[in-house]
Each structure stands twice: as C-alpha cells, then as structure tokens.
Specification:
Blueprint: E1 25-31, E2 37-44, H1 47-50, E3 53-56, H2 64-74, E4 85-99, E5 102-112, H3 114-129, E6 139-146, E7 153-163, H4 168-171, H5 187-194, H6 199-203
Antiparallel strand pairs: 1-4, 1-6, 2-3, 2-4, 4-5, 6-7
Length: 230
C-alpha cells in the first residue's frame, strides 16, 4: 500500500474484461505482452445449474476437483473417463485491429488453450529463423478461424510485410491485469460450484464471468494431481 492508494475512489467500478471471441473468418491482431500468463483450468459441468463454468485450479492440495481426479485415477479411470476435465489455459493482452476486414482497434484478452497458443509459440521460432527477435510483438498476426465446436480450427500467420516494434501509442494502451481476470476460488467455493451453484452467487455479482474455456482449443484430459506430495 502507498499514499497514492489513500486517494483511490472506493466507488470506482472495476473495468469489465473484454475477451476476444473469434468470429469465423480472419482476425488481425497485435500481441501486447511479452509472454502469456498460463494456468491450470478445470471445467465444472454442474455449475450454473448445469450450464457449466471454467475455473482456475487452486494449484494446491486443497482443490476438491483434483481430489476427485486423484480418486478416479486410483480406480483406474483414464483422464478422458473422469468426471472433471483439466486443461492448460493461457491469457494475453492483444490489440484487435480488424475482424473480417472491419476495423476494431480494441485491447482485448485472448484466452485459449494449447491448440492456438502452440501455434503462436511456433511463430516465434519462425521469426528467429528469419533473423529477427523471437518477439510476437514485432508483427501483426493473421488468425483464420474455421468450423465450430469440436471442429474449430485456427491457422496463424505473421504479416512479415509489417515488422516494427510497438509504437508509443500502442505502448501506452491500457491493458488488463491478467492476474485478476477471474477470482481465486477457495476449496469451499469450488465445492459449491460442483453442487450446481451459480458462479456469480458464489463469488459476487460484480465479476465478469462470460468467458469460458473452450474444450475444442484446450489440451483437455491432462493428468495432473495436486493432491500428491511434491
């Protein structure tokens, strides 16, 4: 805490998080962060009265979902056969420039799994092979989305005709605090969600919970277990 914090307006509303939800077709964007923030995510199908919700794992032995997964593992169930799905989720700030040729120019959060972010990472190697710094902030990225649901596919290409570091106006863009995208849930709150509770009821109605981890773009069914000793 600092003296500056004493002048903070307690009534200031939290900025609503705008997630990038890809439309079918071509999105052109510029990465704004040096690297993504990555977290383990669980999908709780019973939450929100059966509509489901994706949450961040507690990453420790208190996680009730990890306990269920650990028990089902002992019973011989494969990850794909278990009650709860686990995936790695990655978040990064991006400047969305155009969507299917229409100008957007908005800062949004891109949050997806290894499917898309693996392709983004591979573009860093391509930049390096071209004699450039492996920094995705150097180029506009052209992302083409085809299909829907489990048939969704993304193709990523850098625009090598526009290579430049972020300019002053882009450097000054207000970005989202990736650490604060979703609240850190307690084991008790996760248990309530497993029982069908509504997410907003559990954590408070002022949180933006519209973004969900899409199973079509995650490395679903990963076998992790935070209940075991290190």
């Amino acid at each position: 805490m600092s003296w500056a914090d004493t002048e903070t307006n307690n009534n200031t509303e939290k900025k609503e998080i705008e997630y990038l939800k890809f439309e079918e077709g071509v999105t052109v964007l510029r990465i704004l962060d040096e690297e993504p923030l990555s977290r383990w995510t669980h999908w709780i199908k019973e939450a929100n009265r059966g509509k489901g919700v994706g949450i961040y794992c507690t990453n420790d032995k208190t996680c009730p979902i990890c306990k269920v997964n650990a028990q089902e593992k002992k019973e011989g169930l494969k990850p794909s056969e278990r009650t709860y799905r686990t995936s790695m989720s990655h978040s990064i700030n991006v400047l969305v420039k155009t969507v299917n040729g229409k100008e957007v120019n908005k800062v949004m959060v891109l949050e997806k799994g290894n499917g898309l972010f693996g392709q983004l990472h591979s573009q860093m190697a391509m930049l390096s092979a071209s004699g450039l710094s492996p920094d995705l902030r150097l180029v506009d990225l052209i992302i083409n989305k085809t299909g829907t649901g489990l048939n969704t596919k993304y193709t990523v290409m850098p625009n090598m005709r526009k290579i430049y570091s972020l300019d002053d106006s882009e450097m000054k863009l207000e970005k989202y605090d990736l650490e604060q995208l979703k609240p850190a849930l307690t084991a008790e709150q996760i248990t309530d969600l497993m029982g069908g509770a509504n997410f907003n009821d559990v954590i408070g109605a002022n949180n933006n919970t519209e973004n969900e981890v899409a199973s079509s773009d995650t490395n679903a069914d990963i076998d992790i277990d935070f209940t075991q000793p290190e």
